[in-house]
Amino acid sequence: MTETQTRAAALARAAQMFDTGALKAKLTEFVAIPSTAQDPAYEAALHQYLDQAIRPWVERLGFTVTIHPNPLPGFGPILTAERIEDPSRPTVLLYGHGDTVRGMDEQWSPGLTPWTVTERDGLWYGRGTADNKGQHIINLMALEAVLEARGGKLGGNVKLVLEMAEERGSKGLREFVAQNAKLLAADALIASDGPRVMPEIPTIAVGTRGTFHFDLVVKLREGGVHSGHWGGLTTDPAILLSHALGCMMDRNGKILVRDWLPQNGVPAEVRGVLAGCEVGGGGEAATIDAGWGEPGLTAAEKIYGWNSLIILAMTSGQPHAPVNAVAPDARAHCQIRYTVDTDPATFEASLRRHLDANGFQNVAIENAGIRMPASRTSPDHPWVRWARESMERSLGKHVQVIPNSSGGLPGDVFVDHLGVPLVWVPHSYNGCKQHGPDEHLLPGPAREGLLAFAGMWWDLGEKAK
Predict the structure, then answer these.
(1) How far, in Å, are 167, 258, 336, 421, 437 from residue 369 at the CA level?
(2) Among positive and negative, which fits the CA dihedral 432, 433, 434, 439?
(3) Spatial separation of the C-alpha atoms in residues 295 and 290, rounded to whole Å
(4) CB 144 within 8 A of CB 18
(5) Looking at the predicted structure, is the pLDDT value of residue 222 above 60?
(6) Average pLDDT for residues 160-175, to the nearest whole number?
(7) What is the phi/psi pair of residue 274, to 5°?
(8) How far apart are CA 442 and CA 123, in angstroms?
(9) Predicted structure pTM score
């Protein structure tokens, strides 16, 4: 092996790709494609991203590429690619999504636009910079650096699946993976999405929390009635709904429907891996309020080892144009973020019992169901240990393993149909504003992400089967 064909040389190439602006240039090129999955007017951009941005790049890296229609009509296409050097060697499946949420063009700060990468105050702004274009670009660019350093050979195998409907709940992905399990078969899934626990702390998440949604509805009459003639005489559905919500969670964020929670508390394995884990770095996005949530848990245990209830929206009457009437109904759309330590199949029945026991028989539960299932690989899995050791060797610092990320990702699809362990290596942070205006990527974690993945790609070539 020559001096230029070493692990250190591969990492140096990856660092050079950042330092010379190559990563930022690639990100600028890809962000310029307005591939939002949430606006039908941009459907062509979903295909453009895969066919004109991803396909030619990964073909140059030696991949064989196929773009497939989504099994579910009306949802974005799915790209698969494979680079097989030796089927007897380890194979990693790389996942990402090239679709984004809506641009929200008019809501961005002056001088910023969603489809142009703009550097301001050390941040890289643009839609998809953090979610998820920037993250999978980093991983593929790191692979490119290792292939260059190794003379075009990796020593292992890589498969890629890139979907274009993640921001619509990954519709069709489960069906696609089930139908193409042989094509996508791998030893492990190693991919990137979501935030680190802290901007400066490299992170591995071995799963994700699931999401369960439902509506609470109070409907008392067909139309509103005059507030002067009926206020104080007839039941106000908004008040009734507010009290029903209050019986589900106290004023300090403690969930009162206790059947929703892990019955034996935070599992010992989860508590152990989270010992000493810091959480934060959200910038202007929000604050961590010590008195909010389950008493007795650390911040890390609350967000990574416990369940949460969030009221995503609630209405009664017409808030944008109120009239002098007692509204006929009230509705709240609620979400439970849950770990694998609870069974979401019991959530609706548990809530019904709880509401009835508290005198809210006239509060209906509608549209209840799982939007995205939870997943988790053991934090002590050999592939997790391998990834952590590789990253710590490359970065020279502690890597925090968490039992699951706080958000939702389709990891369950790959566990269920491919049986792979999950190794999520996020390159973003909690304050990236990924689903709102002014989404951005932090350059520091991006550079570390390049080094971390370059090290893992190199080590893949050295790994015993």
Answers:
(1) 18, 19, 10, 26, 29
(2) negative
(3) 9
(4) no
(5) yes
(6) 96
(7) -95, 0
(8) 5
(9) 0.92
